[in-house]
Specification:
This protein is an alpha+beta fold. The protein is built from eleven helices and 19 strands. The strands form five sheets. Strands 3-2-1-9-10-19 form a six-stranded mixed beta sheet, sandwiched between helices. A hairpin with a 4-residue loop joins strand 11 (160-165) and strand 12. The chain is flat and about 60 Å long. The two termini are 32 Å apart. Bound molecules: adenosine-5'-triphosphate. Adenosine-5'-triphosphate (ATP) is lined by residues 19, 21-24, 79, 142, 166-169, 189-191, 215, 218-219, 294-296, 298-299, 321. Forms polymers.
């Protein structure tokens, strides 16, 4: 009996790490030791009643295809909350999905934000999380979470550099002894490559394509350096001259030409962070190299482009799309040791 009580008592403890991303929201359930949610950060809302009709995958399917009375919204832009109410409802929907609708024991949550968000933006994330039905919420910067999730010992007395390229923001940090020593966050990341492709195809081929097509092009034939063997892809869109649907062929060199400037914006910011890094820590980075993570870093040969431009070894984390959420999960156990964690509770 005592044993039973013991077990059920501890099963009351529920804690999750959440990567509330511009593109995707992931949740890691600490007690189950696994990622239990991985859904696009999209919500479908009834235009009249403002009721949330669907969130995640189901809502993403509706993007660009909804009838007039339904709008599909991405409530985060460039890594921060753009629509507070919808973000809260989306989090509420996801938290219910993880814990069930009748959840008496409210969970504890570690949630991530980009490095340079303002105090107001951080507060908005904390409040939206609490309002979504949690007992206590902590905030950790994405870069520190990404480093933890990529297996870096961030409490070590040595410098590590992490470059986390998400959908809406890129966070670059040099971390030592658990704290961030030098950092930058910019709002150029994976989704900018999609926008670049849309603009390029419009200008060069007079073809209007949607966000999803642009993302598919980037993932399928995108590369940060010219490919040895050029790749091609058929793409469909609307011809701007005739107004009719049309298919064209695009090649990997054109995609590189389209995204090149945005890739170099990120590379140059990494160089600026390196220039500001104290010499002792810079020496560590020369030995250990830079770790890249986040979906935006998965473009082929991006690590090579970074390495060519910084003259440093650069590696891609094992699970680039999951590092942040895994790190948030690890950070739940380190809430007392990690410096500068903001928290809010009911
Ligand atoms: N195989 C791939 N190749 C290139 N880009 C990819 C690939 N897979 C995903 N992406 C891109 O990665 C981005 C999403 O990455 P991620 O899920 O790490 O970001 P996020 O956490 O949602 O965003 P943020 O951290 O900025 O809020 C999107 O732009 C997506 O198109």
């Amino acid at each position: 009996m005592a044993k039973l009580f013991h077990k059920s008592f501890f099963s009351m403890n529920k804690s999750i790490g959440i990567d509330l991303g511009t593109a995707n929201t992931l949740a890691y359930y600490k007690q189950k030791e696994k990622i239990v949610l991985n859904e696009p950060s999209v919500v479908a809302v009834d235009r009249v009643t403002k009721k949330v009709l669907a969130a995640g995958k189901e809502a993403k399917e509706m993007l660009g295809k909804t009838p007039d009375n339904i709008i599909a919204i991405r409530p985060l832009k460039e890594g921060v909350i753009a629509d507070y109410d919808v973000t809260e409802q989306m989090l509420n929907h996801f938290i219910k999905k993880v814990f069930g609708k009748f959840n008496i024991f409210l969970p504890e949550v570690m949630i991530c934000v980009p490095i340079e968000v303002t105090g107001v933006e951080k507060r908005a994330v904390l409040e939206a999380t609490l309002a979504a039905g949690v007992k206590r919420a902590y905030i950790i910067e994405e870069a520190r979470a990404a480093a933890l999730g990529a297996g870096i010992d961030i409490s070590a007395p040595e410098g590590s550099m992490i470059v986390d390229i998400g959908g809406g923001s890129t966070d670059i940090a040099v971390i030592s002894l658990g704290g961030t020593v030098v950092s930058r966050s910019i709002r150029t990341a994976g989704n900018n490559f999609d926008e670049d492709i849309i603009k390029y195809v419009k200008k060069k081929h007079n073809l209007l394509i949607g966000d999803r097509t642009a993302e598919q092009i980037k993932i399928k034939i995108g590369a940060a350096l010219p490919l040895e063997q050029e790749e091609v892809m058929d793409i469909k869109g609307r011809d701007l001259l005739t107004g009719l649907p049309k298919t064209i062929v695009i090649n990997s060199n054109e995609v590189l030409e389209a995204i090149e400037d945005s890739l170099m914006v990120i590379v140059n910011i990494v160089k600026q962070v390196l220039e500001k890094t104290p010499p002792e820590l810079a020496a560590d980075i020369v030995d250990k190299g830079i770790v890249m993570t986040g979906g935006g870093s998965m473009i082929r040969h991006f690590t090579k482009l970074m390495s060519n431009n910084t003259q440093l070894p650069v590696t891609l984390a094992d699970n680039p799309l999951e590092s942040v959420v895994l790190g948030a999960g690890i950070a739940l156990d380190m809430a007392d040791v990690l410096r500068r964690l903001e928290k809010a509770e009911r």
